[in-house]
């Protein structure tokens, strides 16, 4: 891995820590205002965009290689376990297992 | 420590899956562990797994993760008057203030045990347990992913599906009725970017869809 990536990790870690620590150390009373709508939607939007950016090329490659079966079954298993247990880790493991079994 | 156990147990599958997915894009187990220990944010690390192979510029990586981390400010604002601890203790606890730790600390501060504010040692134990589970779990996942890939060709192919499966789970987990329209818009923008051959614009373009949230609540 490149030095630039390690620098990015350190920067991302530091910025993440700042967002976590600043409110806890500030002395002003909380305003109690609800979060702005865009901030509430930002995380889900980024996740959806990544999901599409990761899944779409994968799906096209699977179709082109005529290996859509493991892709479809793995995706279905991941989605089903997520809706069932609400645990992205278990969903990932289920998706990989289903994909493996379907190869 | 004991309060951290449910969080730690809850983290293990996700950490394991994250480690396996990270090993699938070529990161070694020590690299995965160091990343988990430094960044300690499941959402940001999952984002990096997609951004690194896509060759996203480092500046854009930092900017997008910083924007996504802004939600932590809200956690701190909510917890600030509900938890105890000295300033150094709070500063240490903040390193582990993830989504799940926030939920646990909030539940403890408003639970049945009266209005006792969680103390500094309890908070640090909670954060430390979660951090250790996340870091060690991701190392184990990366090591298992590497071992499985060496085991057989079909296992190697299946491990390549870890990242897509992880994002299916994360996306479904983040879906809520209030954000359905912006999320659909983000997915559409990302799909358009990928299909038109501008895949590097998919994630930043999709992120901009959150600006539409104010009109669709």
From TrEMBL, chain A:
Q: Where is the chain membrane-spanning? A: 6-25, 37-56
- The protein's organism comes out as Paracoccus solventivorans
Please identify the protein, giving its name as recorded.
Branched-chain amino acid transport protein (AzlD)
One Pfam family, short name please?
AzlD
Keyword entries, A-Z: Membrane, Transmembrane, Transmembrane helix
What InterPro entries is this protein classified in? Brnchd-chn_aa_trnsp_AzlD
From TrEMBL, chain B:
Q: Note the Pfam families from the entry.
A: AzlC
Would the keyword Membrane turn up in this protein's UniProt record?
Answer: yes
Question: Where can this protein be found?
Answer: Cell membrane
Q: Which UniProt keywords apply?
A: Cell membrane, Membrane, Transmembrane, Transmembrane helix, Transport
User: Main localization of the protein?
Assistant: membrane
Report whether Ligase shows up as a keyword of the record: no
Regions annotated as coiled coil: none
What membrane topology is given?
Multi-pass membrane protein
Name the GO cellular-component terms: plasma membrane
Which family does the record assign?
Belongs to the AzlC family.
Q: What is this protein called?
A: Predicted branched-chain amino acid permease (Azaleucine resistance)
Where does this protein come from, organism-wise?
Paracoccus solventivorans
């Amino acid at each position: 891995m490149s030095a630039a990536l390690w620098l990015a990790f350190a920067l991302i870690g530091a910025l993440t820590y700042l967002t976590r620590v600043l409110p806890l150390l500030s002395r002003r009373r909380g305003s109690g205002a609800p979060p702005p709508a865009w901030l509430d939607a930002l995380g889900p939007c980024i996740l959806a965009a990544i999901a599409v950016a990761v899944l779409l090329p994968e799906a096209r490659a699977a179709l082109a290689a005529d290996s859509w079966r493991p892709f479809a079954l793995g995706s279905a298993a991941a989605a089903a376990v997520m809706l069932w247990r609400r645990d992205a880790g278990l969903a990932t493991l289920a998706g990989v297992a289903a994909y493996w079994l379907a190869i | 420590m004991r309060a951290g156990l449910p969080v730690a147990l809850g983290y293990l599958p996700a950490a394991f899956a994250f480690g396996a997915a990270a090993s699938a894009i070529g990161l070694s187990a020590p690299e995965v562990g160091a990343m988990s220990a430094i960044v300690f944010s499941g959402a940001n690390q999952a984002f990096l797994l997609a951004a690194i192979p896509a060759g996203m510029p480092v500046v854009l990586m930092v900017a997008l993760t910083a924007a996504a981390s802004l939600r932590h400010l809200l956690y701190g604002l909510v917890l600030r008057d509900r938890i105890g601890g000295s300033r150094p203790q709070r500063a240490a606890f903040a390193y582990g203030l993830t989504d799940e730790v926030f939920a646990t600390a909030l539940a403890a501060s408003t639970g049945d045990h009266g209005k006792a504010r969680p103390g500094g040692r309890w908070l640090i134990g909670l954060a430390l347990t979660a951090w250790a589970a996340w870091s060690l779990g991701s190392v184990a996942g990366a090591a298992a992913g590497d071992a499985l890939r060496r085991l057989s060709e079909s296992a190697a192919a299946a491990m390549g599906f870890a990242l897509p499966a992880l994002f299916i789970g994360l996306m479904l987990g983040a879906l809520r009725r209030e954000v359905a329209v912006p999320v659909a818009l983000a997915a559409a923008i990302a799909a358009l970017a990928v299909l038109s051959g501008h895949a590097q614009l998919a994630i930043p373009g999709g992120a901009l869809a959150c600006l539409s949230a104010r009109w669709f609540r």
